[in-house]
TrEMBL record:
Signal sequence region: none
Species the sequence originates in: Vulcanibacillus modesticaldus
One Pfam family per UniProt: Resolvase
Lineage: Bacteria, Bacillati, Bacillota, Bacilli, Bacillales
Protein name, entry field: Resolvase
Coiled coil regions, renumbered to chain: 374-425
SMART domains hit by this protein: Resolvase
Domain Resolvase/invertase-type recombinase catalytic: 7-155
Coiled coil recorded as keyword: yes
Residue ranges constituting the Recombinase domain according to the UniProt record: 162-283
Any GO MF annotation of the entry: DNA strand exchange activity
Length: 483
C-alpha cells in the first residue's frame, strides 16, 4: 500500500575520489539540507536518498533510481540537493531528470545556487538551462550527422543489415540463403501477380522466418519490395526518428549513393516493381471476387465498371455482368451479359491475341517503351531542377554555405547531362519483352481452365490492363505492356 504522506527528498551523493580530493562528506550534505528546511519553515517529513561512492557520469545510481520511483509513486513533494552537481555534472542529464520532476509536480531545490523550480527566478533559470541544453543537443546531433554522412558517402552501412545481407566490417555482403528468398518475393510479385498478403502467407506456411525470426507481414513484404538496397543503392537519412512518430524527411535531405552496395535485384526489375507498387491497385473487394473479370471488365457504352449479379428463374439462376451505372443510377442503357459467355469470349480473345503477336504489337510495345523512357528522363530533370531551386532559396536565407550550393549545381548538371545522353535511345531487348508477353499470355490461358479464380486473377493483373465489352462476342482487351 502506497504511503499517503508526502515527503521532502534529501538527495546526497559523493564519489570516492571526491571524498579524497575535496573532503566532501555525506553527513555534511545531509545536515545542510535539513538546516535549510528548518530555516525555510518546511515542516514536512524528510527522506534521505544517499548514493555513496557513485560518480555523476550517468543517472544509473541505486538510490537515485529509488528516488525516481518514489516521485512516480506520488509520495515526494520536493527534491533537494546541496549543489546541482550532486544530481548530475552533465547538463542534459540534469535537465532530463528535472523535467521528470516537473511532470509529477515535484519542485527541485539546490541550496548552493539558490535554485528552486517552485519560484519565478528558479523557473527562469530552468528555461535558460533548457535553452543551453537544447543547443548542446543540436550540436551533438550535427556532429553525429556529419560523421554518418561521410560514412554513408563511402558506402558504409550504418544500421542493422536488411534481409538478404550480412554485415562485415560495416560493409554489406550478400547472404545467399536469404537472397534466394528476396528473389523469390520479387518474382512472386512481378511475374506471378501475387500481392503482399499472399506472399507473406506463402512464406509463413513454408516456415521461412524473417530477419528477426518473426512471421512475415504485409508491411514487411512491402518494405522489401520498395527498399532500394536490393538494387545496390544506399539511401540514408530518409526517415526522421527523433520524434515518437517516424516521418519521412524532405528528399533534399536524403543521402543517395547509387551502386554503393552489392545488388540482389537488377535495376530493371526493381524499377518495374516500383511502378507496380505505385500504380493504383484494383479494389480489394474486386481482387477477392470469385468471378474472373471482377474489377477488370468495363462497360463499352459509358466506361463504368461491370458488376456481377444474378438473373433467371428460381430454378435456372445464372451469373451476369451488368453496368454499375445502369444498376445503381439508371444512367446507362447497356444490357446485361451472361458471365459464362463473357468469360468464354475473353479467353478466345486472349488466344487470338497470342496467335496474332505481329508487327502491330511490336510497334505498340516500342511506342510504350519510348513514351515511358522519355517520361522518366523528363521527371529526373525536373526533380533535379526543383531540388537546386530549393537550395538557392536556402542559400538566400543564409541556411547553407556557397560550397553546398555549388555542389548541388554540379549534381544538377550531371543528372541533366546523363539524362540527355540517355534521351537518344532507351535500352531494351524487344525480343525478350515480346517473349515475356507470350509467356504471360500462355500462363493466363492455362490458368483459366486449371487454377482457382484467385490465382488466375493474380496472373491476369500481370498482363491485362483493362477489358471492355462492346457487344455480343465483342471484347476489347488492353494489355499491360510495361510490366
Amino acid at each position: 500500500m502506497i504511503d499517503d504522506l508526502k515527503y521532502i527528498a534529501l538527495y546526497s551523493r559523493v564519489s570516492t575520489d571526491e571524498q579524497a580530493r575535496e573532503g566532501v562528506s555525506l553527513e555534511e550534505q545531509q545536515e545542510r539540507l535539513k538546516a535549510y528546511c528548518r530555516a525555510m519553515g518546511w515542516n514536512i517529513e524528510t527522506r534521505n536518498y544517499v548514493d555513496d561512492g557513485y560518480s555523476a557520469k550517468n543517472l544509473d545510481r541505486p538510490n537515485l533510481n529509488k528516488l525516481v520511483k518514489d516521485v512516480k509513486a506520488g509520495i515526494i513533494t520536493k527534491v533537494m540537493v546541496t549543489k546541482l552537481d550532486r544530481l548530475s555534472r552533465k547538463l542534459l542529464d540534469l535537465l532530463t531528470i528535472i523535467d521528470l520532476f516537473q511532470e509529477y509536480d515535484v519542485s527541485f531545490v539546490s541550496i548552493s545556487e539558490s535554485f528552486d523550480t517552485n519560484t519565478p527566478p528558479g523557473r527562469l533559470t530552468l528555461q535558460i538551462l533548457g535553452a543551453v541544453a537544447e543547443f548542446e543537443r543540436e550540436r551533438i546531433r550535427e556532429r553525429v550527422y556529419e560523421n554518418m554522412y561521410h560514412a554513408a558517402k563511402q558506402g558504409k552501412w550504418l544500421t542493422q543489415s536488411p534481409y538478404g545481407y550480412q554485415l562485415e566490417d560495416k560493409q554489406l555482403v550478400v547472404y545467399e540463403p536469404e537472397a534466394k528468398i528476396v528473389n523469390l518475393v520479387y518474382k512472386m510479385y512481378a511475374d506471378d501477380g501475387l500481392g503482399y498478403y499472399a506472399i507473406a502467407k506463402y512464406l509463413n506456411n513454408k516456415g521461412i522466418p524473417s530477419k528477426q525470426n518473426k512471421e512475415w507481414t504485409i508491411r514487411s513484404i512491402k518494405r522489401m519490395l520498395t527498399n532500394p538496397v536490393y538494387k545496390g543503392t544506399l539511401v540514408w537519412n530518409r526517415v526522421d526518428s527523433s520524434k515518437k512518430k517516424r516521418t519521412e524527411k524532405d528528399a533534399d535531405d536524403w543521402i543517395i549513393v547509387d551502386d554503393a552496395l552489392p545488388a540482389i535485384i537488377d535495376k530493371i526489375t526493381w524499377e518495374m516493381v516500383q511502378k507496380k507498387v505505385n500504380k493504383k491497385q484494383m479494389a480489394s473487394r474486386a481482387q477477392t471476387s470469385p468471378h474472373l473479370l471482377g474489377g477488370l471488365l468495363k462497360c463499352g457504352n459509358c466506361g463504368s465498371g461491370m458488376s456481377i449479379g444474378w438473373s433467371g428463374s428460381k430454378n435456372n439462376r445464372y451469373r451476369v455482368y451488368r453496368c454499375s451505372a445502369n444498376k445503381n443510377k439508371g444512367t446507362c442503357t447497356s444490357k446485361q451479359y451472361k458471365a459464362n459467355e463473357v468469360e468464354t469470349w475473353f479467353k478466345q480473345g486472349l488466344l487470338s491475341l497470342y496467335n496474332s503477336i505481329d508487327n502491330n504489337l511490336k510497334i505498340a510495345l516500342e511506342e510504350k517503351i519510348h513514351d515511358q523512357h522519355y517520361q522518366d528522363i523528363e521527371q529526373k530533370i525536373q526533380t533535379a531542377k526543383k531540388r537546386y531551386k530549393r537550395k538557392v532559396e536556402a542559400y538566400t536565407a543564409g541556411l547553407i554555405e556557397l560550397d553546398d550550393l555549388n555542389e548541388e549545381r554540379k549534381k544538377m548538371k550531371k543528372i541533366i547531362n546523363e539524362a540527355k545522353r540517355a534521351n537518344y535511345e532507351p535500352s531494351y531487348d524487344l525480343k525478350q519483352l515480346e517473349q515475356n508477353i507470350r509467356t504471360k499470355l500462355t500462363n493466363v490461358i492455362d490458368a483459366i481452365d486449371n487454377l482457382p479464380i484467385e490465382r488466375t486473377k493474380a496472373l491476369l493483373k500481370t498482363i491485362v490492363e483493362k477489358v471492355t465489352i462492346l457487344g455480343d462476342k465483342e471484347i476489347d482487351i488492353e494489355l499491360n505492356l510495361t510490366e
